[in-house]
């Protein structure tokens, strides 16, 4: 299937959509990486911090409010998951950074960005058929 056929398919698909229907997606989580600007000793974090799942390469640290989980790497990167809004994610990541700062690491909050958002929609006005994608990507 070439690009012009693909464009015609989407035009026909959008023409069949009723304008009275609306979709209201709700955010169910996001992935937001942060660089802390310093190396981290995962053994020290495992011994001193609460709510830590120990793994020699990465560690998971959890918070109750907002309900989030951070994956912490020795390079000083944190990946915060589970927050349902940007504000909750920022607050949770700042709390994770503050926990590490209290453990004695020289933490600075760098490169906070949105990497992935997971949303759910209860009713969607368009029927999505992915069969064309399979045929398109085979060739």
TrEMBL record:
It comes from the Eukaryota. One of its GO terms (cellular component) is nucleus. GO terms for biological process: DNA-templated transcription initiation. Belongs to the TBP family. PANTHER family: TATA-BOX BINDING PROTEIN. The keyword Transcription regulation applies. This is Uncharacterized protein. SUPFAM superfamilies: TATA-box binding protein-like. It is found in: Nucleus. The keyword DNA-binding applies. GO terms for molecular function: DNA binding. The lineage of its organism: Eukaryota, Metazoa, Chordata, Craniata, Vertebrata. Transmembrane segments: none annotated. It holds the Pfam family TBP. InterPro entries: TBP (IPR000814), TBP_dom_sf (IPR012295). Keywords: DNA-binding, Nucleus, Transcription, Transcription regulation.
